[in-house]
Design a protein that fits this description.
The protein has 16 helices and 14 strands. The chain is α/β, with parallel strands linked by helices. The radius of gyration is 24 Å and the shape is elongated.
Length: 407
């Protein structure tokens, strides 16, 4: 890894970090009592510094100003924040660093434990290694997306959702994929927003819905009677005929309405509240499930739980993964689960990434979970084999406490 910069006007703290880094046998360490001096060196060659350890509480130029300047310079290395203050201030500073486009690796509380310092340095080393990344590829036009929809190139991969009480699969989330004839598998972040902006989202949603319901029919015939969730846009919901479109697709593929869940993410503001309320009400009258997706982020709020007829609440990954290591995150998670239980909503934890997350969701009496600990998204034909392997694996997990019925 390239150089490590320590920026802190606290002489004792700065010298202690120097000694700790020396003990950990990290070379190329430079320390600065004045932030402006360090920033000048970074600005001359932003790529030469692999890690900046920066104090938040400094007199001449505090850490908040340093973050702004590092963002302006275009610093691409890792960043660790050193603080003697409270956890909430450190959390806010981390979010500020992200807002400036910086690669934040965590906060270090004084006196800094050597083991924690080593973790930060190792993460910076990992960042510096060459990585294989999915290429961003070309920007697609509305005409290309329209052609893909018309030619049947839009398909789905499916991520299982499991019941936390029994560890059995109870549903899947359908995730749009574009099988491009030249570029291979194209992921939704490359075409969903374009479809919304260019008036293609209704056609795209219908294509994804058809692919999901076709798979659901095949699974049902094979003995997998599971729920299928499909993401819908706020732009879909303001169409007064959207509920009729969904009903027609259910009839076309022979899937019972109660087997379909529509996941609503309010990443875009509700432009026509009356129309959206009418559509959501009609969908519920048809016994179609409704989930509020990524709860706690974007425009979603408690008022949606009060005013809209949701049946499920999906807890965003940012509140689930690592909750046991973060008291604030855990408090928000527990409050969301408590509200859901009191008003009769099923809960789905997104982003269950490891055994610790799994056990935490069991202990919290969350109803369902999905995430990489359980399975990554997969093509429809792969689900049956995955389910058999999961059943064998699930038997080894700690038996959970009972949760509410999924109906």
């Amino acid at each position: 890894m390239s150089q490590i910069f320590v920026i802190d006007d606290d002489h004792f703290s700065r010298r202690l970090l120097e000694r700790q880094l020396a003990v950990l046998k990290h070379d190329g360490v430079r320390s600065f009592a004045r932030a402006e001096e360090a920033l000048g060196v970074v600005a001359s060659d932003p790529g030469a510094v692999g890690l900046v350890l920066c104090g938040l509480e400094m007199d001449e130029m505090d850490g908040v100003a340093v973050l702004r300047q590092l963002g302006r310079i275009g610093f691409v290395g890792g960043l660790g924040l050193i603080t003697g203050g409270g956890e909430r201030v450190a959390r806010t500073a981390e979010e500020l660093a992200r807002a400036h486009g910086l690669q934040i690796l965590g906060a270090l509380h004084k006196p800094v434990p050597t083991s924690r310092l080593q973790q930060i340095v190792e993460r910076a080393r990992s960042m510096a290694r060459p990585k294989q990344r999915r290429p961003s590829g070309p920007a697609y036009t509305a005409a290309e997306i329209a052609r893909a929809i018309g030619c049947g190139e839009i398909t789905c991969h499916f991520q299982p959702k499991v019941d936390m009480a029994t560890a059995r699969m109870v549903g899947v989330e359908s995730l749009a994929r574009w099988q491009h004839p030249r570029d291979g598998m194209v992921y939704p972040d490359r075409f969903i927003s374009i479809a919304e902006e260019q008036g293609l989202i209704d056609d795209l949603t219908r294509a994804v819905l058809a692919a999901a319901l076709q798979a659901a029919r095949q699974w049902h015939r094979a003995g997998l009677a599971i729920h299928v969730a499909v993401n819908v846009s706020m732009d879909n919901l303001v169409r007064l005929d959207f509920a009729d479109l969904v009903a027609a697709e259910l009839e076309r593929w022979g899937v019972a309405p109660g087997r379909l869940v529509l996941e609503v993410t309010e990443s875009r503001l509700m432009t026509d509240r009356a129309a959206a309320l009418e559509t959501l009400t009609r969908l519920r009258l048809a016994h179609i499930g409704l989930a509020i997706d990524d709860f706690g982020t974007g425009h979603s709020s408690l008022s949606h739980l009060r005013d809209l007829p949701f049946t499920e609440l999906k807890l965003d990954r940012s509140f689930v993964h690592g909750a046991t290591r973060d008291p604030v995150q855990q408090a928000i998670l527990e409050a969301s689960l408590g509200v859901s239980a009191r008003i009769g909503l099923l809960t789905v934890a997104e982003g269950v990434e490891d055994l610790e997350d799994w056990q935490a969701m069991q202990a919290s009496h969350c109803d369902m979970a999905q995430g990489y600990f359980i399975a990554r998204p997969m093509p429809a034909p792969a689900l049956a084999d995955w389910n058999r392997a999961w059943q064998a694996r699930a038997c080894e997990l700690t038996p959970p406490a009972p949760s509410r019925s999924l109906g």
